[in-house]
């Protein structure tokens, strides 16, 4: 059963749709990465799920009950935008008030539990307003975790966190989903981090869900390629493009270099798509007098898959090929 099921959800601001006939299925116990460009409608959707906004149309069901059922609302833990905390009260006091709101029987124990989950025990006595941005984010997550919610809705929870904070939140969410069966709906623009924890994805554009998929489906859809580094990547690209349909030259960060005119720029290897065997590539280069420094099979990740999907949405299928340094049969007069 889905923890969150949405059909035909619609919300307009002054007649302009922010969420447009949206469908969404968040399975129980999943970590659902909700992805989209700025202004695509993620926060609005989350606010509609949590009842912080009124929908104009559609159905939201949470844990099998209508989204506005008070029983269901009490099972949600929410962090959307900034934590709702009083700046002049201590972190402990803020969480204590939250515990009272939720009617928790042992506030002190619960406050210590959630602060320890986000690694913020030492901040209990500090005024919230004096906490750093990253500390506030962690405290916001702690607040959402109070009362052992069944469903967590987290909007950009790792915004402003340092590496240690990101790891702490990652481990906490993995623990909650795996060991306690908590469902997590999470938005983040840090796709590399999201892909370390998400079991499912929903990709939204202009208020409309354009794709829902499991992490395993993403894996199959992400194209595989042979990564190869040579003594002269630009020459190797030209040689390889005679045999394979698509070859990209990468920069030092492993990103495809834009436009073929940058032949002089430093490189970080090549991607050879459609080559099923790295040995084939290696042999072909050797036959053409090129020395291979490194070679392995690899796949594109979530970030590239997402950028490719967005390019295709904007410009139609195949748009990505125009973005990168692309060596193929029609390039360079060959
Ligand atoms: N209170 C509001 N009044 C008017 N328009 C709004 C309001 N809140 C959001 N919008 C508009 O609704 C659309 C969706 O906004 P939303 O904040 O849901 O996007 P988002 O995907 O969360 O963006 P981001 O990734 O930047 O946080 C945007 O065009 C935004 O300008």
Q: How does this model look, in words?
A:
By secondary structure, this protein is an alpha/beta fold. It has two domains: 2-216, P-loop containing nucleotide triphosphate hydrolases (Rossmann fold); 223-299, no CATH class. Helices cover 35% and strands 27% of the residues. The protein contains twelve helices and 15 strands. The chain has helices spanning 42-49, 70-73, 91-102, 107-117, 133-145, 163-180, 191-197, 215-221, 233-241, 278-287, 302-315, 319-323; strands at 2-13, 16-27, 31-36, 57-62, 65-66, 76-79, 151-155, 183-187, 200-205, 208-214, 224-230, 246-249, 270-273, 292-299, 326-327. The strands form three sheets. A six-stranded mixed beta sheet has the order 6-7-8-3-9-10, sandwiched between helices. Strands 14-11-13-12-15 form a five-stranded antiparallel beta sheet. Strands 2-1-4-5 form a four-stranded antiparallel beta sheet, with helices on one face. A hairpin with a 2-residue loop joins strand 1 (2-13) and strand 2 (16-27). Helix 3 (91-102) packs across helix 4 (107-117) and helix 4 (107-117) crosses helix 5 (133-145). The longest helix has 18 residues, at 163-180. The radius of gyration is 24 Å and the shape is elongated. Residues 13, 18, 36, 38-44 line the site of adenosine-5'-triphosphate.
Structural class: alpha/beta
Shape: elongated
Task: Give the CATH superfamily of the largest domain.
Answer: P-loop containing nucleotide triphosphate hydrolases
> What fraction of the residues are assigned to beta strands by DSSP?
25-35%
Corresponding CATH architecture of the largest domain: 3-Layer(aba) Sandwich
Number of helices: 12
CATH class of the largest domain: Alpha Beta
Specify the biggest β-sheet.
Answer: 6 strands, mixed
Mean pLDDT reading: 89
Quote the CATH topology of the largest domain. Rossmann fold
H and E string: EEEHEEHEHHHEHEHEEHEHEEHEHHE
Query: What is Rg?
Result: 24 Å
List bound small molecules.
adenosine-5'-triphosphate
């Amino acid at each position: 059963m889905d923890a969150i099921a949405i059909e035909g959800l619609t919300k307009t601001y002054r007649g302009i749709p922010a969420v447009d006939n949206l469908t969404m299925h968040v399975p129980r116990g999943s970590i659902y990465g909700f992805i989209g460009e700025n202004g695509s409608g993620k926060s609005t959707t989350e606010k509609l799920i949590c009842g912080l906004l009124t929908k104009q149309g559609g159905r939201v069901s949470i844990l099998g009950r209508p989204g506005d059922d008070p029983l269901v609302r009490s099972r949600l833990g929410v962090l959307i935008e900034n934590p709702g905390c009083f700046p002049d009260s201590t972190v402990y006091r803020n969480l204590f008030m939250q515990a009272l709101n939720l009617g928790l029987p042992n506030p002190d124990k619960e406050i210590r539990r959630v602060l320890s989950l986000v690694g913020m025990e030492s901040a209990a006595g500090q005024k919230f307003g004096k906490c750093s941005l990253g500390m506030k984010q962690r405290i916001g997550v702690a607040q959402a975790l109070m009362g052992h919610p069944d469903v967590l809705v987290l909007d950009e929870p790792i915004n402003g966190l340092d590496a240690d904070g990101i790891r702490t939140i990652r481990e906490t969410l993995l623990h909650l989903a795996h060991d306690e069966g908590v469902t997590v709906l999470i938005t983040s623009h840090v796709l590399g981090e999201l892909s370390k924890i998400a079991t499912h994805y929903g990709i939204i554009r202009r208020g409309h869900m354009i794709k829902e998929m499991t992490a395993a489906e993403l894996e199959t859809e992400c194209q595989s390629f042979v990564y190869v580094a040579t003594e002269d990547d630009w020459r190797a690209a030209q040689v390889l493009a005679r045999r394979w349909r698509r070859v990209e030259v990468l920069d030092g960060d492993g990103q495809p270099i834009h436009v073929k005119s940058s032949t002089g720029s430093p490189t970080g290897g090549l991607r050879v798509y459609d080559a099923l065997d790295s040995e084939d590539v290696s042999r072909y280069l050797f036959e053409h007098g090129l020395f291979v420094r490194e070679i392995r099979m690899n796949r594109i990740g979530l970030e590239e898959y997402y950028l490719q999907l967005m390019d295709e949405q904007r410009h139609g299928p195949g748009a990505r090929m125009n973005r990168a340094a692309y060596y193929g049969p029609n390039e360079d007069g060959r």
